[in-house]
Amino acid sequence: MTSRRIRLRGLLLAVCAAALWFALGGVAQAEEGDQGGLTVTIDALSPARLSPDATIQISGTIENTGSAEWTNVHAYLVMARSPYTTRDQVEALTSGERTYIGDRIYATGLFDEVGDLDGGDSASYDLEVPLTEVGVTGAQGVYPVGVQILATDAEGNTSTTSVARAATFLPWVAEPEDPVPSGLVWSFTLGPHREDGAEDVEALRDAISDGGRMREQLDLAASLPTSSRTLVIDPAVLDAAQNLADDVAIPDAADIDDEDRRAADSFREDLVALARSSATWIVDYDRPDRLALASRPDLEAAIAPQLEAATTDALAQHQLTGRRAHWAAETGATTAMLNSLRATGESPTIVRSSSLPDWEQRHGSLVTVETRGGLAPLAVNDTLRAGDGTETAVTLRQRVLVQAALASLSRAVDPQSRADALTFVDPSWIPGSGASAAALVPALGGDDLTHAVTLDELLAGGVDAYDGELPDQPLTAPLPGSVLSAVERLHQAQAMAAATVTGQDDHASTLARELSSAVSVRWLDQPERAASSAAQRADEIRESLDGIEVLGPRAVTLSSNQGSFPLTISNPTALPISVSVDLDASNPALDPAVIPPVDIAPGERRTVNADIDLGRQTSTTLTAQAMAGETPIGRPAEFNVRSSQVGVIVWLAMGAAALGVVVAMGRRFYRRGFRRLSEPSAKASADE
After folding, report:
1. What is the DSSP letter of 362?
2. 3-state secondary structure 159-184
3. Do residues 379 and 365 lie in contact, with contact meaning Cβ atoms separated by under 8 Å?
4. What per-residue confidence (pLDDT) applies to 680?
5. Which of 51, 314, 382, 621 has its CA 20 to 30 A from that of 360?
6. Rounded distance, CA 30 to CA 24, Å?
7. What is the pLDDT of residues 639-687, one digit of tens each?
8. Helix axes 197-208, 213-222, angle to 10 degrees
9. How would you class 680 by CB atoms within 10 Å of its CB: exposed for 0-12, middle for 13-18, buried for 19 or more?
10. Binning pLDDT at 50, 70 and 90, where does residue 498 land?
11. In angstroms, what is the C-alpha Rg of the chain?
C-alpha cells in the first residue's frame, strides 16, 4: 500500500512538472538558483563520448549540507541540443557567464525521485536517458550536460529553478587522423601562507595526510600510465614534509602527533619515488616572485646565487633530479620578467594563457617567445575551468576530452595547428576516495581521439613560436617594494653570517632557502606580514652576530717602539665562526696589520697576539674590530698603546750619571780608608 502511494505521488509530481514545463514553453533553463544547503556531484558518466545510439548514464551524490530538511528531492538530466564549437562558448559556461545549460528532461522514468534529506544526510541519484529523448542535432562539437536538483524547502516552497546543479560536457567528434596529444600535469606546491606558522604546519599536515589534497593527487597520479603524467614539484614541499616528519622547526601551537609524522614521512618518500619514474619538472625553491624581482634588477642579481643554491641543495638532499623550470604564478608574465629569466638559462617558464593576450589553442601548450637573450620556452596552462559542481575524476576526464575535441576541430581546419589537450590539474583539488585511474584513462590515450604525452615529449617534438604581444604590466600586483626592501636587508644580514660561519654547509643552505622563501609568491595575499617577517629575521641574525666581541687590555705599554699584546675574541653563538680582526689607530701616521682569520668554536674564546710598530710615535689609541670579510661585526675593543723607549743620549746620560755615582762613591771610600790608616800613625808620633 505504501509503495503504491509513493508511485502515485511520483506520477502526480511528474504530471505537474510536465505541465509546468509546457507552461514555460517546453524549455527549462539551467538558471543558478539558491543553493539552499544542497550540493550535487557527478561521480559517473557514460559514455565519455557521444554516438548516435548512445544512452547517457549519469550518477552521483546529493548532500544536504544545511540543518533544515529538504523534501521531494528530484534529480533531472539537463542537456543542450546543439553543441559548442569554440573555446569562448565553453569558457562562458564554465565561468558562470551563462546560466543556461540546456533542456531539463521531465519524461516519466527519466528523472530520479530521491526522496527527503534531513540536515547532514546524503543520497545517491542515478539517471539513464537515451540520446534520442534529448533530441540533439548530432553536429560535431561538445554538448553541455549535467544534473539539476529540484526540491521543497522547510517552508514548503518548491522552486522552478534548481537548488543544486553540476555540469560537464560530452564531446561528439569524428575520429581524427592523428590522435590529439593528451596528458595530465600534477603540481605539488605549498599553498598560500596562513595567519601564523602553526596554521601553515597544520595546513600542510591536512594536505599530505590520508584524504588530503596532495596525498590524494599523488595516489591518483601514481595509478595512471607513466606516459600520461608530468609532475611539477616545488622542493620546498619535500623540505616541509621532512621537517614535519622529523619534528624540526614545528611551532608548539601546531597540533601534530606521531601519526601525522609518519604520514609526512610516507608522503615524502612516495613523492620522490614517483618523481623518479615520471617526467618531472622542478620549479624554483618555494616559487620566488620573479615578477617582483624583475622590477629590482640589482636585488635579483645579488640574490640569484642564493635562489639557485636553495633549489640545488634541496634536490641533492632529497636525491631528486628533473628538468628545471620557473613558475610565473598568478601574477602573470611580462617582457621584463621573461628577459630576466632567459638571462639565467633556457629553462621553461610555466604561465597562464591569460598572460599571453594573443595566444590561441592552435599554438599548443608549448611555445617560444623572443627575448633579449634569445628564444625562451613557455609552458602554457590553458586548462578549462571546472564549472558548476564539485570537481570529480569524471568531470576532470570530460574537461580533457573537451580540450581534445576542440583541438581535433582546430587541426581539421588548420593543418598547421599544434592544438593539444594537455591539462594542468588544479593543485587545490581533492580527488576523493572514489577517484580512480579507470575514470581518467579514456581521456589519456584510451581511445582513438587522444594519445598520451608528457610535457617533455611535447617539448622534444617541436615548439611553435608565439609572435604576439607580451604585457608590460602584470595581471595582478606582485610583491610590493616594501617586501623587496626587507628581503634586501635579510640578504645583507645573511651575507654577514655566511662570511662569519665556517664549516657549516647546512647552515649556508638553510640561509639560501630562507631567502628564497622570503620572496615567495605565497606571500602575495599578506605583503605586510612578508615584509615584517623578513625584517625580523634580518634583525635576529644581526643581533646574534652582535654578540661576537673583541676583548683587549685597558692599556698596553711597550718596552720599545715595537711589540705585541694579547686580544681575546669571544663567540657566544651556537655555530663555529672565522673572523679577522682589523686594528685601527687614532694616529694617522700608523697603519697596524690586520690579524688573519681566526677559527673559534661555538661558545668559546680565542686569544691571539697583535703586533704593532709605533715607529717614532710614542702612543696611540687602537680599535680592534672583528670582521666578516669586509663587514664589521660585533662589539670592538678600544685601548691605549704607548712606548716606554728612550734615546741613545738619554742612555749615555744615564750611563754618565751612573759612572759619576761610582766615581763619587769610590773617592768617598778612598778618603775614609786614608783617614783610618793615618790616624794610628799620628797617635804614635804624639806618644813619642
Report:
1. G
2. CCCCCEEEEEEEEECCCCCCCEEEEE
3. yes
4. 54
5. 51
6. 13
7. 888 887 554 444 455 566 666 666 666 666 555 554 554 555 555 555 5
8. 30
9. exposed
10. confident
11. 41
Band (471; pLDDT cuts 50, 70, 90): confident
| CB atoms near residue 564 (< 10 Å) | 12
CA-CA distance, 498 to 512, in Å (whole number)? 10
What would the pLDDT profile of 252-265 be if each residue is shown by its tens digit? 999 999 999 999 99
Length of the chain: 688
3-state DSSP assignment of residue 398 = helix
Q: Rounded to the nearest 5°, which phi and psi values hold at 33?
A: -90, 180
Cβ contact 216:264 at 8 Å: no
CA 115 vs. chain centroid, Å, equals 46
Query: Which runs of consecutive H residues, i.e. helices, occur in 365-416?
Result: 393-413
Grid coordinates representing 555?
692599556
Q: What is the pTM of this model?
A: 0.82
Q: Note whether 284 and 326 are within 8 A (CB).
A: yes
Euclidean distance between CA atoms 442 and 450, whole angstroms:
8
Q: What number is the average pLDDT over the span 265-275? A: 98
Q: How many CB atoms lie within 10 A of CB 229?
A: 25
d(CA 460, CA 466): 17
Q: Give the angle 397-403-409 at the CA atoms, nearest 5°.
A: 135
CA 647 to chain centre: 72
How do residues 521-552 score in pLDDT, each as one tens digit? 999 999 999 999 999 999 999 888 888 989 98
Under 8 Å between Cβ of 329 and 287: yes
- Report DSSP state, residue 363: G
Residue 641's H or E segment, with its range, is strand 637-643
Which pLDDT score, from 0 to 100, does residue 519 have? 97
As a whole number of angstroms, the distance between CA 383 and CA 353 comes to: 9
**For residue 661, what are the contacts with CB-CB under 8 A and spacing of at least 6?**
none
